[in-house]
Amino acid sequence: MAGTTDALRVGVIGIGQRAEIAQHVGATGTPARLVVAVDTTEAGRERAARWFGPEVAAFADVPSALEAQPLDAAIVTTPDDTHAEVALPLLEAGVAVYLEKPMAITLEDCDRLLEAAERTGTPLYVGHNMRHASVVKQMKALVDDGAIGEVKAVWCRHFVGNGGDYYFKDWHADRRRTNSLLLQKASHDLDVIHWLSGRTTRRVTAMGALTVYGGVTDRGGHEGQVMPEWFSLDNWPPEAQTGLNPVVDVEDVSMMLMDLGDGVTASYEQCHFTPDYWRNYTVIGTRGRLENFGDTPGGVIRVWNRRHEYAPTGDLEIPIEGEGEGHEQADALTMGEFLAHVATGSPTAVSVLAARDAVAAGALAAESLRDGGSPRDVPPAPVRPAAAAA
What angle do CA 169, 172, 175 make, to 5 degrees? Predict the structure, then answer.
């Protein structure tokens, strides 16, 4: 499809909350139009009609959609455990795939996707939109410019204050569907840690537990709904949450340590019942450190690059750029990058190998956590797709 001048025909598969990213399809620099929506449920197809309008035809399955309307690209936002099942036939059919992160919930499925993308030559893109968030791009630019010297450690604390609403009232709470929130939620941050350090996880160990939401007995009541329909900041305190998923067996607090090789290390901490919601990165190098306070426009990045006692404002303070919420901005930029890649073959900020690296760290951390913290070594990918350098 490189060099095509016609508008790309795009479908969206799985009309849950993240399907909203398909609303960006017609608003990038690449001519493209959303033509079909697919969901196995009647509620999902009705949602597609409300979100995308009557000109986007709704179907109950992918074969029916492809028979009615050939596609150049598909946006896959189905539950995580179905990513490989949905994406593999599309790749085999020559339909470029935007796969919502994480790439899959197991390394085996990631490697099946890598093999199919390499063999068929069909574009496969994983939506790690945090690489397009202003706070991350600005920290990466500071690191690359030598502001803190050579990176030796990266720490990330993620205060998931909305976790009870975001992850414990639907399929995300079921480890059969997500594996772990160290994979589902943390894949963003694991990819950022890898990007900022210029390295990937080689060995991982983790600890964690289901400490709060497992004791909430009020379950069910959200069938056919998506998250904004039950979300409220008034859902507090965490123990008073209602309507949790019938199955809740993923951890709500977890911590992992990563060996990135050559003495470079990283850590990640995640809690789903904090009162505040933001992520904090600390990057320490041989000549300083940087840290973000807030992760959207209005926050700042501070750099300490000389020796002194406690200095809360640092030696350099950089405002986080942009307007509004960072996630929406990053979604639009990510969709634009995907469509441009499909149309022209232009490079992308994240490769499929990088997406596989994030899954590897999170999935093996979950194994470690559930096995007393025993270390896990990351196996190499069996294939290296031609697009891996993107």
Answer: 125
Domains of the chain, CATH where assigned:
131-329 (3.30.360.10)
The two structure tokens encoding residue 235: 């859902």
Cβ neighbours of 38 (radius 10 Å): 27
- Going by DSSP bridges, is the β-strand pair 203-209/253-261 parallel, antiparallel, or unpaired? antiparallel
pTM score, two decimals?
0.95
pLDDT of the residue at 221: 84
* pLDDT given at position 387: 46
Of all helices (H) and strands (E), which one includes residue 85? helix 83-92
CA distance 213 to 164: 8
What the block records as the tokens of 261 is: 């090789």
CA separation for the pair 84, 109 (Å, rounded): 6
DSSP characters for 97-118?
A: EEEESSS-SSHHHHHHHHHHHH
Q: Is the peptide bond before 102 cis (omega within 30 degrees of 0)?
A: yes
User: In this structure, what DSSP letter does residue 369 have?
Assistant: H
Q: Report residues of the chain scoring pLDDT below 70.
A: 1-5, 323-328, 384-390
Tokens of 298: 């209005």
**Cα–Cα distances in angstroms (integers) from residue 269 to residues 31, 258, 263, in the given order:** 41, 12, 20
What's the alpha-carbon Rg for the chain, to the nearest Å? 21
pLDDT at position 388: 42
CA dist 330 and 324 (Å) reads: 11
